[in-house]
């Protein structure tokens, strides 16, 4: 593995001011994968000043959208050109199976291309006339970049989460400081290299690796930041919001979830089992939108559980680089312990453990666990109500549509939800009353760069992706002109 002991600030690779490093661990064997630069408040200050200078005096915000689009397309090509290598880095840093890492990287490249297109369109739509009821005046609404963005991201989709923030921010004309998770910092550093080779001007994208308290907190508190874009847990999101409140920074938050999946008893049982499993076991269940609470109508309940158990037991667990593996290790020791604790809690709370929860017999090192199915999970239990963020699905029966909707909506989260039935009208009806930012019908998880992404309730504020993602990084300015020769008439009559 190459060295990752420098930060990317103002278009240069620099050693952190205090010279610190931390280690990134390969979760499949618990060995040290890389020594990584640990930024502190001094480095954050340098990175924010570089981004500030690039915004206030540099070419990037003053370029046309089409010109910025050219650079974004070069970044997309830079990712595509290195797909296998970047995917391997992602697997070794995060643990996910290689085909899923390849999806993420393809999606990340696609995200840069998509926002290149929106940057181009921005040139035509940058100013829109506003109709006024007084013909002495004319007015336009103009879109301008919000300024310097600070982006803080989690470890579950390292490159993709970076793309979801960097691509729209750059398309809008913002400059930025990106802090990846300390558990998966490597591909964000590779992205810096790709941006450098794509001729992104210095200071437009700065990447600072480091711990949450040492690098994330000073970034969220820095007065030189205009906008904070955060993806991560609810408690950290709350801290970010408090930091932003001090000097009224614009803030968008993508937080956790405990998303329901309602399966009516007219559903095809095989399709239901596959979508349920994909909805909770892909990416080891370390997915904010994972459909971790499954509500099954009583008529199908036992049959579905039987098939879910059979298929779950067949899942191949192992190093994500090995062919055929569907479930890699969890990302870190702390996440592994947290998920194992949740399984113990579930058993103590009276849920029926259908399968899973042990370390696979053939894997004595690494953060591996058998995927878990809990049935008859009490509605007031911790495992039903709280985000576990691992391969643990909680299932319970329901009687009718009203009961299912009530139970699905009974959560402090509201990121995603899914509903399955052969009765499409029923699905459409239920989709409209679920209190969630994303609702899937007859599937779970498919995500498109074009469509809005974000949560209700404690799952977040604002939307990423699509045109909504671009608007996150744009201010709207009103320019109003007085066109009359006549005096205004306040004191000149
Ligand atoms: P986390 O909140 O622990 O960390 C996220 C990021 O915040 C990391 O980069 C971390 O270093 C940083 N951080 C930690 N403390 C900080 C502080 N005091 N100030 C500033 N930054 C700080 O979350 P995680 O464990 O990395 O990710 C898992 C969580 O992310 C889950 O709750 C999951 O649901 C959520 N998530 C949400 C989405 C979404 O789109 N809604 C997507 C992915 C993950």
Automatic annotation (TrEMBL):
CDD domains: ALDH_F10_BADH. PROSITE patterns: ALDEHYDE_DEHYDR_CYS, ALDEHYDE_DEHYDR_GLU. It is an enzyme of class 1 (oxidoreductase). InterPro entries: Ald_DH/histidinol_DH, Ald_DH_C, Ald_DH_CS_CYS, Ald_DH_CS_GLU, Ald_DH_N, Aldehyde_DH_dom. Pfam families: Aldedh. The active site is at 254. GO terms for molecular function: betaine-aldehyde dehydrogenase (NAD+) activity. Its EC number is 1.2.1.8. Keywords: NAD, Oxidoreductase. Transmembrane segments: none annotated. Pathway: Amine and polyamine biosynthesis; betaine biosynthesis via choline pathway; betaine from betaine aldehyde: step 1/1. Gene3D superfamilies: Aldehyde Dehydrogenase, Chain A, domain 1, Aldehyde Dehydrogenase, Chain A, domain 2. Residues 18-479 form the Aldehyde dehydrogenase domain. PANTHER family: BETAINE ALDEHYDE DEHYDROGENASE (PTHR43860), BETAINE ALDEHYDE DEHYDROGENASE-RELATED (PTHR43860:SF2). Belongs to the aldehyde dehydrogenase family. This is Betaine-aldehyde dehydrogenase.
